[in-house]
Amino acid sequence: MWSILSNSNTQWVLFSTMILGIAAGTIGCLAYWKRQNLMSDALSHAALPGVVIAFLLIGEKNLFILIIGAAMSALIGALFIQWITTSSRISEDTAMGMVLAVFYGLGIMLLTIANQSASGNQSGLDNFIYGQAAAMVRSDVITMLSLALFVIFIVFIGFKEWKLYLFDGNFAQGIGLSLNGMNTLYTIVLVITIVIGIQAVGVILMAALLIIPAVSARYWTHSFRNMLILSACLGGLAGAFGTLISTFGRGWPTGPFIVVVAAGFFILSLLFGKEKGLLIEYIQFKIYQKEQQALGNKLGEEGSK
Amino acid sequence: MSGPIVQVENLSASYRKNKVLYDVSFEVQPGSLTGIVGPNGAGKSTLIKTMLQLHPILTGSVTFYGLPFKQAKKRIGYVPQRGSVDWDFPTNALDVVTMGLYGQIGWFKRPTSRHKQMAYEALEKMGMADYAERQISQLSGGQQQRVFLARALVQNADLYFMDEPLVGVDAATERAIMDILRELKAKGKTVMVVHHDLQTVEDYFDHVLLLNRTVLHHGMTEDVFTKENIAETYGGNMRWMGEERHHVVHSVQ
């Protein structure tokens, strides 16, 4: 194990998946209160055709260019969802389901074609489906790190504005915060987080890294700030531990391990969460029940006197 | 008295294919407390939202103090319907009230203890000081409404719009809210309230705007709030439906 950890490339990869997890946990918390969890799933699937098209155009695997392709295709997916919802009677979740499936199908189709070319076959494009953090080289890590830090910074400086926007958008607009501006910014940071994660986590499972830390954090706190911090920490831990476990085997995909670790945190939160956990609710119920029974007995005794 | 502070001219608005408001024109005098009254679906909430640019204007214009909304919005406070937000959001009452100060605090700056103090005083005024640290999900409907009102008070606006603030609240909260509205009026502020309870209109408001897709009557309560006008506002809707649907059973005629 130590031999793996002492490898400087592994250290970099671990560090970058941790920062990715922190960014995903932070943005996931916004998505949770925007009530748009399926949106992140739809957009991460929608990123796949962009990755393959970008690869076919430039003919080599340069993460930065592939990320741009992924972002464009995810944004087109987002626009489609918006367009379908506003111009027809189709509901938003139906539109998201359609975009998710159609874009992913298109992506797989293009991937099959790309893999038939000689360079495509060697490129490791398949890694974008389930994620392969170990395949990242130094420049990939730097691209991912800087974008993740940018996203975290955007949420950090506008913390108060994000809170107001998520809690009461109409009121926010009333006091001068542009709702359109915030919606656009939200979509941008969401798409950035998704596309930087597709190399390490993969398009299929990226949404889980956005959703699970935020849901887990909800069980521990009643403060938006603490929920955001906790969600970021859980995401970071899941990213780092998942990557670490996946390095033990040759060619193990990273995404599934990260998601399984995150799911472990979720189960712990569900059971032992300080505010909404099942155990604490059960204990509270029992305490109240005892108090009430004691009160009832006391009244009964007084009545019999 | 100086001129009107709100001028609405030929305003219309729609939801999808239904025209909800048409030819809405009225003026509001400073220092008045107006009840917007009309049947369900008359467009009361839509009127407020359209005036405040939360809903697109189809045609017509709205000015506040002679200015368009964008330039006047610092002087305008809005209390949305209680059900318009998710009360499960993780925050406490004091924090929600502090949100009313975000415009004054300035974007990207953190609230100071002075802002917290102002928010606390607004809560105190609404009789909610003991609940400042309480989770908003654990507040009753009436308490949530008081928090919303406190948030509007702390904005220190000159003109307030309130969307059904008295719906689903207990008698004590209704009294507390009405006391505050009268106090605002006494300070020379102007308040427009969407109201649904015909019984209390005469006690609560000095002006009434009877609305059913368009303004039917508007003026001092004692002049406008008459049996005939109310019947026209509420019955008009049924007659209109009758005209539209000749092929169905005429229950109204």
Keywords:
heterodimer; A: 305 residues; mainly alpha; ABC transporter involved in vitamin B12 uptake, BtuC; B: 253 residues; alpha/beta; Rossmann fold; three-stranded antiparallel beta sheet; 10 helices; disordered C terminus
What does this structure look like?
The complex is a heterodimer of chains A (305) and B (253). Chain A has one domain: ABC transporter involved in vitamin B12 uptake, BtuC (Orthogonal Bundle), CATH 1.10.3470.10. Chain A is 81% helix and 0% strand. Chain A has helices spanning 2-6, 8-33, 37-58, 63-87, 92-116, 118-122, 127-130, 138-157, 159-167, 169-174, 179-197, 206-218, 224-246, 254-272, 278-304. In chain A, 48% of the residues are buried. The model of chain A has no long low-confidence stretch (mean pLDDT 90). Chain A has 305 residues and is mainly α. The N and C termini of chain A lie far apart (73 Å). Chain A contains 15 helices and no strands. Chain B has one domain (6-244): P-loop containing nucleotide triphosphate hydrolases (Rossmann fold), CATH 3.40.50. In chain B, strands 5-6-7-3-8-9 form a six-stranded mixed β-sheet, sandwiched between helices. Chain B has a three-stranded antiparallel β-sheet with strand order 2-1-4, with helices on one face. With 253 residues, chain B is α/β, with parallel strands linked by helices. Chain B starts with 5 loop residues before the first strand and ends in a 9-residue tail after the last helix. In chain B, helix 7 links the parallel strand 6 and strand 7.
